[in-house]
Amino acid sequence: MTKLPQTSSLHTHLCFLLFLLLLLISLPGEFPKALYNCSKLQYLNLSQNSFVGKIPDDIDSLPRLQYLELAGNYFSGDIPAAIGRLQELRNLQLHMNSFNGSVPPEIGNLSNLKHLNLSYNTNLVPWNLPSNFTKLKNLKNLYIRQSNLTGELPGTLGEMAALEELDLAYNSLNGTIPSGLFLLKNLSIIYLFRNSLSGDVPQVVEALNLSIIDISENDLTGPIPEDYGNLTKLTELALFLNGFSGAVPASIGRLPNLKQFRVFINNLSGTLPPDFVRYSELEGFEVSGNRLTGKLPDHLCNWGKLSTLVAYENNLTGELPSSLGNCTGLTEVKVSDNGLSGNIPSGMWTAPNLGQVLMSNNSLTCELPEKISWSLTRLEIRDNRFSGYIPTGVSSWNLKGSS
Ligand SMILES: *[C@@H]1O[C@H](CO)[C@@H](O)[C@H](O)[C@H]1NC(C)=O
Ligand SMILES: *[C@@H]1O[C@H](CO)[C@@H](O)[C@H](O)[C@H]1NC(C)=O
Ligand SMILES: *[C@@H]1O[C@H](CO)[C@@H](O)[C@H](O)[C@H]1NC(C)=O
Ligand SMILES: *[C@@H]1O[C@H](CO)[C@@H](O)[C@H](O)[C@H]1NC(C)=O
Ligand SMILES: *[C@@H]1O[C@H](CO)[C@@H](O)[C@H](O)[C@H]1NC(C)=O
Ligand SMILES: *[C@@H]1O[C@H](CO)[C@@H](O)[C@H](O)[C@H]1NC(C)=O
Ligand SMILES: *[C@@H]1O[C@H](CO)[C@@H](O)[C@H](O)[C@H]1NC(C)=O
Ligand SMILES: *[C@@H]1O[C@H](CO)[C@@H](O)[C@H](O)[C@H]1NC(C)=O
Ligand SMILES: *[C@@H]1O[C@H](CO)[C@@H](O)[C@H](O)[C@H]1NC(C)=O
Ligand SMILES: *[C@@H]1O[C@H](CO)[C@@H](O)[C@H](O)[C@H]1NC(C)=O
Ligand SMILES: *[C@@H]1O[C@H](CO)[C@@H](O)[C@H](O)[C@H]1NC(C)=O
Ligand SMILES: *[C@@H]1O[C@H](CO)[C@@H](O)[C@H](O)[C@H]1NC(C)=O
Predict the structure, then answer these.
(1) Separation of 143 CA from ligand 6 center, angstroms?
(2) 98 lines ligand 8 (CB under 6 A)
(3) What is the third-level CATH fold of 1-153?
(4) What residues does each domain of the chain span?
(5) Which protein residue's CA is at the shortest distance from atom 11 of ligand 11?
(6) Average pLDDT of the residues in 217-240
(7) How much is the average pLDDT of 231-242?
(8) Are the C-beta atoms of 158 and 183 separated by less than 8 Å?
(9) Which ligand is nearest to the CA of 329?
């Protein structure tokens, strides 16, 4: 079912009739060149239709276009260089099409462009992010998720002064992350996960508006930057599945808005800062598969919001955080294969949505409680020093080896 192209500038009766005609035909075929009659057109939205064929090489016959939205169609071939001549363009949405050619560097000439979306164009010939794109000094949103980007990021990425959201996830980018990126004052979201980026991450961070950093699933190495501790708006830090080493900086433990801390499967060592997230409403704490030692921070669930505690396969010792005893949001506690000892805070067992508790291969000593959350579906506590009552009625128990 075709939707009418929307327009904010139907200046002429001719254009009005044209749209009626388009509605009557109601058959999206190739790009409707008849629209060229409406040379004053500023706003064209043909998104979510079934248009096929190429975007015409003379698309600049609509020189006043400010919004060109062609997302969710079957446009194929190259994206024409002529798009770079639509000098009034503010918003260019080309995501989810069937382009099987190239992306023109001329897009970098669109000096008024604020929003560019090329995501989910998985048939593009593998391409490098053109350094010309970094001339887009008014661009706020750059989305090129899962669109066959390869090679290195342009070193000039940090010149895109207006950038607020960058999404280049699910590509094959390699090389290092340009240091300029973390200096951008207005940047709030960085999604670079699932690429092949390598080397140390930039240690100097002045992008104080950052709220999400997700650079997980790359080959990044070196220390976690101290400066992340200055990002008071940060809610999500995802560094998992990389080669980060060294200790978790104490400064990160003081972030007031952190909700997700996900650093599992790296080479992190040392102890976790004892005051970690004392003042934030943490929801996810995932540090498994590192070489961390010492205690888990006591305050992980100060606000009762913690949902997942995943810390298995480290060398953690000491007792479980006492705040787990008053942690109504808890759904998962996975701390197997450490050297934890002492009692389990008894309140933990009554968290109403507690689903999985994996504690095998530690030195935990307590008795199991008589009251246990009804929602528990998985409990593994073998190779510990539990004693006493063994509750019944949970689907899968693995208590072997307790003594
Ligand atoms: C409108 O566009 C069609 C197709 O491009 C063309 O044949 C026709 O001459 C145009 N009419 C005017 C008035 O420009
Ligand atoms: C363009 O059209 C699509 C599909 O109808 C719609 O989802 C989208 O919100 C429209 N864009 C704008 C800016 O209104
Ligand atoms: C685009 O920019 C290049 C130089 O960066 C220039 O050669 C070309 O003429 C520009 N095109 C337009 C349409 O402005
Ligand atoms: C691109 O896709 C179109 C439409 O499916 C097809 O006709 C054309 O041959 C393809 N071109 C290349 C280079 O694969
Ligand atoms: C891309 O940028 C380079 C260097 O600034 C310039 O020489 C070239 O003309 C630009 N290309 C286009 C197509 O704008
Ligand atoms: C851009 O594409 C993404 C996919 O990366 C989509 O989820 C998002 O809604 C698009 N953004 C806009 C502003 O259209
Ligand atoms: C583009 O990327 C997709 C995965 O996102 C992949 O399936 C496809 O083979 C790639 N195309 C080329 C030409 O490399
Ligand atoms: C950054 O954001 C502020 C506040 O929205 C705005 O005034 C400023 O122009 C932006 N900076 C750039 C370089 O766009
Ligand atoms: C990035 O990948 C390209 C091939 O796509 C290769 O030529 C280049 O050497 C790689 N660069 C790095 C830094 O690994
Ligand atoms: C981060 O804070 C430390 C002091 O807490 C300061 O020395 C450093 O310059 C700050 N970095 C930035 C980028 O503001
Ligand atoms: C834990 O420490 C022991 C000895 O101190 C060491 O052999 C083992 O490899 C460490 N485990 C991890 C996961 O680092
Ligand atoms: C448990 O946490 C709630 C808030 O989540 C707080 O009001 C209450 O005082 C805490 N109780 C104890 C015993 O710490």
Answers:
(1) 7
(2) no
(3) 3.80.10
(4) 1-153, 258-403
(5) 315
(6) 98
(7) 98
(8) yes
(9) 12
pLDDT greater than 80 at residue 235: yes
Contact between 260 and 235 (Cβ < 8 Å): yes
Tokens 């060109």 found at = 68
Q: Does this chain's domain 1-153 share its CATH topology with 258-403? A: yes
Is the C-alpha dihedral spanning 271, 365, 362, 305 positive or negative? negative
Topology of domain 258-403, per CATH? Answer: 3.80.10
Which ligand is in closest contact with the Cα of 149?
7
- Ligand with an atom nearest the CA of residue 159: 8
Q: Is the pLDDT of residue 81 over 80?
A: yes
Residue 73 has what pLDDT? 95
Does pLDDT of 380 surpass 80? yes
In this model, does residue 389 exceed pLDDT 70? no
Task: Please work out whether the CB of residue 199 comes within 6 Å of at least one atom of ligand 9.
Answer: no
- Beta strands (DSSP E) in 112-149 are 115-117, 141-143
Six-digit token pair at 331?
Answer: 């759904």
pLDDT digits (tens, 9 = 90+) for 155-182: 999 999 999 999 999 999 999 999 999 9
Cα–ligand 9 centroid distance for 220 (angstroms): 15
Q: DSSP strand E in 224-370: where?
A: 236-238, 243-246, 260-262, 267-271, 284-286, 291-294, 308-310, 315-318, 332-334, 339-342, 356-358, 363-364
Helices (H) and strands (E) in the chain, counts: 1, 28
Question: What is the pTM (predicted TM-score) of this model?
Answer: 0.91
For ligand 11, whether the C-beta of 12 sits within 6 Å is no
Q: Residues lining ligand 5, judged by CB closer than 6 Å?
A: 105-106, 108-109, 132
Q: What is the pLDDT, as a whole number, of residue 99?
A: 98
Number of the ligand 1 atom closest to the C-alpha atom of 35: 2
Residue closest by Cα to atom 1 of ligand 3: 109
pLDDT at residue 275, as a whole number: 84
**163 Cα: distance to centroid of ligand 8 (angstroms):** 9
Burial of 54: CB neighbours in 10 Å, binned 0-12, 13-18, 19+: middle
